[in-house]
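Entry 12.
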Amino acid sequence: MGGTNTSEDDQGGRKGYHHGNLREALVDAVLKLISEKGPNGFSFAEAARRAGVSPAAPYRHFKDRDALMAETAKRGFDLFADALERAWNGGAPSPLSSFEAVERAYLNFARREPAYFAAMFEAGVSGETDPELRAAGDRAFRVLENACAAVIATMPPDRRPPVLMMAHHIWAMAHGVTALFGRTDQGRRPAPFSAEDLLEAGTAVYLRGLGAIE
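Predicted 3D structure (tokens):
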């Protein structure tokens, strides 16, 4: 009454929730389960149980597990894009220093939000079937693309590589270093160098090869 959403307390004693918060509760449950079991180690029903609702309750917001995972990944990409944009800072104080800050932000996000990072890249959800997820991922990639374009613009016109190709190269390098050596879980590969040093050195070699730096 009085506009208050009812809970499921009277259905098997389950934890009450407000309908407006159920999406949040389910995403929170997914993030916790990813941290414990990995992005593919739990079911839709298990996410519902962790959120404290009946197995049928999630269907009010998500058609299936993939839709819930896509929502989690989309939120992760939104946070990721925000972090990259803050690091880019409009290319200030210089395109090269801001470019390097974007790469560090890539690595730092994976360390700070490992569950979101796993949902984004390891859960098998596809932006091809979810326009909102695709848009969120594209926004993050555009930051990297803009950073590459700014660095390329400092080069002589006859030596400038294609922006899109460079953005994909840098994305692959940043993601590879992050996924192999920057993880915070047991999937991290041992190396005699820090992930930061590997990423910085790899980028320097790449940019020198292009002639973007001396």
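Annotation: The chain has two domains: 13-62, 65-210. Confidence is low (pLDDT under 50) at residues 1-18.
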